[in-house]
Amino acid sequence: MNDVPIWDTQDLRLLFTTKVKGSDPIHINCLFHSEDSPSLAIWSDHAYCFGCGKWASYFEMVDKVGKEPPEKTETEEKIVVPTETEIYELANTYHDRLYKSYKSKYYYDRGLTEQTIRAFKLGYTGHAYSIPIWNWHKIKTIRFRRDDSLPNPPKSKYWGIKGLNEPFLFAPRGFSDSTLWVEGEFDALIGLQLGRTAITITNGVSANKEWVIPTLIENGVKYISLCLDRDTPSFGKTLELTGQLLDAGFSVKVVKLPFGCKDLSEAFIRYGKKCIELL
User: Fold this and answer.
1) Under a CB-based contact definition with an 8 Å cutoff, are residues 26 and 183 in contact?
2) Which H helix or E strand runs over 42?
3) Least CB-packed of 34, 135, 258, 272 within 10 Å?
4) For 237-248, what is each residue's pLDDT tens digit?
């Protein structure tokens, strides 16, 4: 998993100046229309012209200028972790942008409903899908999923905000005594659509941390339905987690996904609400 400064490996502003401050935009004369005053605002990952209304993604700006931004030096590489307020603002911005860019089909194809997309502020940055990481009613960070439909997409499939990319507990509706533990944020949201309290750990199946089980105990969880992906790494992790949960005093049910379904999302897309019988 790559750690990135909010969303991209480089900063667009460095194409035009070496003096950047936090997340503040810089302003230059618009590259998309003729003007005498600087109305094109450039952030680290996109640009917007307050004169002509042009919005440009990171990749569109790089294509327009004809080169990538230079890499930051060690002194410029100081991590600026966004505040909780800034994370909420980012989530809202990307959520609004999802509908302006007509990219919501990706979420529908994953089995997510319009209600789920809006409730959890799923979004689109302009070149990646954004997934706010909720812990009950708070957004702790944002994860990003590359848009495979774009030319030359990033090598990493998922990444996070630099400084906020450690494993988090994704518990979008908190906890209950009976909780579904899945692998991946989309599966957790599918679990909610099926009427279950669902959780996952960000950064993949190998990211399970020693604090997770104590957190479940503290929140009154007693029964765990374990539904990890149907692949070799996840099979080993299921066995390991089952043993740890039983040792900690939980009642554990291992969910057996239908043949040919890699995860809960695939099962839901194929069989709909019949999946409730599995959980």
Assistant:
1) no
2) strand 40-42
3) 34
4) 888 899 999 999
- Residue 238 C-beta-side C-alpha neighbours within 13 Å: 19
CA angle 266, 272, 275 (to 5 degrees): 80
**Nearest CA to 117 among 138, 83, 140, 94?**
94
Query: Token pair 């004809």 is at which residue?
Result: 66
245-269 pLDDT tens trace: 999 999 999 999 998 999 999 999 9
Q: CA angle at residue 93 from 92 to 94, to 5 degrees?
A: 95
Q: Copy the structure tokens of residue 91.
A: 């989530």
How would you classify residue 169: left for phi > 0, otherwise alpha for psi between -120 and 50, otherwise beta?
A: beta
| 145 contacts 131 by C-beta, under 8 angstroms | yes
3 token code pair? 């750690």
CB count, 10 Å around CB of 256?
9
Q: At what angle do helices 185-193 and 264-271 cross, to 10 degrees?
A: 40
How far is the C-alpha of 122 from the C-alpha of 220, rounded, in Å? 28
